């Protein structure tokens, strides 16, 4: 596999425009396939699941197929009751009518302010104006407080044919996934059965999107959806676990999900640095993931890293609050490859040099729990003054 310039896989079209939901920025887009595609999704676990998210989940679970997705920013259509459900279904029907396909092949996604109704006249006009082009405007139309689109494309082979997998997402605040708390979309022209695609997505999201945190809040709306239309290998059989190309497909899928997850963490609201936590020597994969996410999600750790304060005790405290198995007298800790603790004993190190390194835009914290062989990673960002500024005036 190799990373390539961002592009749409064979048979996919996309467009985005300004429909009036926002003052000036693009706010509506769609993604369409020439043919029905195998589809899979993972969804927010927030109890107040938004109408578009619930509708897309229901749609995919009915047949593991989609042919189009329509997405808007600015208004979340969340906590909008029966009217919100009707509005989401109306979007689905409008797109289906325009494309001449069944509404059961259309997914709907929204992001933005909770508790406001969609301006359906504007949305209807916007959907009518969307075109079957191959531009990248949808990657901008889904953004809220993000500073830039997050995109990635890989080229790989299936059955001797070149395939492309492309992913894009939005996410900057309200990021603390328990399933997939942002909007993320992955499309490919490889051929994969929908149920296998669902199994892969559900499995791989655990070590990618579920291992990021920005602010500890799980949104009401968000999801990750993937579509595989098979047009690059139209005459070949669908991928199975026994296929020769299965492992490569799995590796590409994981690379796309992990890249997008890290980009969300890097672009956290007000963030100045990406923080990665690597936990080794854990009793189980679950312990490793929990420990890593506890450290990267600690507001005290995040604030210390913003201030370039080598206050490693906050890392210890965050670890100790978890229920993971820790050899408390054998713990190893390093920050930016500088050993802080070995066997729970403080090491001599250049504090001024380490403090200076915390000014970099990427920080690595490594922990060895010495209770097993499992490893896990998590990604987040620092906590800055700008985060408060952004969220104190979010609706304006």
TrEMBL record:
<dbReference type="InterPro" id="IPR002813">
    <property type="entry name" value="Arg_biosynth_ArgJ"/>
</dbReference>
<keyword id="KW-0963">Cytoplasm</keyword>
<keyword id="KW-0012">Acyltransferase</keyword>
<feature type="binding site">
    <location>
        <position position="391"/>
    </location>
    <ligand>
        <name>substrate</name>
    </ligand>
</feature>
<feature type="site" description="Involved in the stabilization of negative charge on the oxyanion by the formation of the oxyanion hole">
    <location>
        <position position="111"/>
    </location>
</feature>
<feature type="active site" description="Nucleophile">
    <location>
        <position position="181"/>
    </location>
</feature>
<comment type="similarity">
    <text>Belongs to the ArgJ family.</text>
</comment>
<dbReference type="GO" id="GO:0006526">
    <property type="term" value="P:L-arginine biosynthetic process"/>
</dbReference>
<feature type="site" description="Cleavage; by autolysis">
    <location>
        <begin position="180"/>
        <end position="181"/>
    </location>
</feature>
<feature type="binding site">
    <location>
        <position position="396"/>
    </location>
    <ligand>
        <name>substrate</name>
    </ligand>
</feature>
<keyword id="KW-0068">Autocatalytic cleavage</keyword>
<feature type="binding site">
    <location>
        <position position="144"/>
    </location>
    <ligand>
        <name>substrate</name>
    </ligand>
</feature>
<feature type="binding site">
    <location>
        <position position="170"/>
    </location>
    <ligand>
        <name>substrate</name>
    </ligand>
</feature>
<dbReference type="GO" id="GO:0004358">
    <property type="term" value="F:L-glutamate N-acetyltransferase activity, acting on acetyl-L-ornithine as donor"/>
</dbReference>
<feature type="binding site">
    <location>
        <position position="269"/>
    </location>
    <ligand>
        <name>substrate</name>
    </ligand>
</feature>
<comment type="pathway">
    <text>Amino-acid biosynthesis; L-arginine biosynthesis; N(2)-acetyl-L-ornithine from L-glutamate: step 1/4.</text>
</comment>
<keyword id="KW-0055">Arginine biosynthesis</keyword>
<dbReference type="InterPro" id="IPR016117">
    <property type="entry name" value="ArgJ-like_dom_sf"/>
</dbReference>
<feature type="binding site">
    <location>
        <position position="181"/>
    </location>
    <ligand>
        <name>substrate</name>
    </ligand>
</feature>
<dbReference type="GO" id="GO:0006592">
    <property type="term" value="P:ornithine biosynthetic process"/>
</dbReference>
<keyword id="KW-0808">Transferase</keyword>
<keyword id="KW-0511">Multifunctional enzyme</keyword>
<dbReference type="GO" id="GO:0005737">
    <property type="term" value="C:cytoplasm"/>
</dbReference>
<comment type="subunit">
    <text>Heterotetramer of two alpha and two beta chains.</text>
</comment>
<dbReference type="GO" id="GO:0004042">
    <property type="term" value="F:L-glutamate N-acetyltransferase activity"/>
</dbReference>
<dbReference type="InterPro" id="IPR042195">
    <property type="entry name" value="ArgJ_beta_C"/>
</dbReference>
<dbReference type="Pfam" id="PF01960">
    <property type="entry name" value="ArgJ"/>
</dbReference>
<comment type="pathway">
    <text>Amino-acid biosynthesis; L-arginine biosynthesis; L-ornithine and N-acetyl-L-glutamate from L-glutamate and N(2)-acetyl-L-ornithine (cyclic): step 1/1.</text>
</comment>
<protein>
    <recommendedName>
        <fullName>Arginine biosynthesis bifunctional protein ArgJ</fullName>
        <ecNumber>2.3.1.35</ecNumber>
        <ecNumber>2.3.1.1</ecNumber>
    </recommendedName>
</protein>
<feature type="site" description="Involved in the stabilization of negative charge on the oxyanion by the formation of the oxyanion hole">
    <location>
        <position position="112"/>
    </location>
</feature>
<comment type="function">
    <text>Catalyzes two activities which are involved in the cyclic version of arginine biosynthesis: the synthesis of N-acetylglutamate from glutamate and acetyl-CoA as the acetyl donor, and of ornithine by transacetylation between N(2)-acetylornithine and glutamate.</text>
</comment>
<keyword id="KW-0028">Amino-acid biosynthesis</keyword>
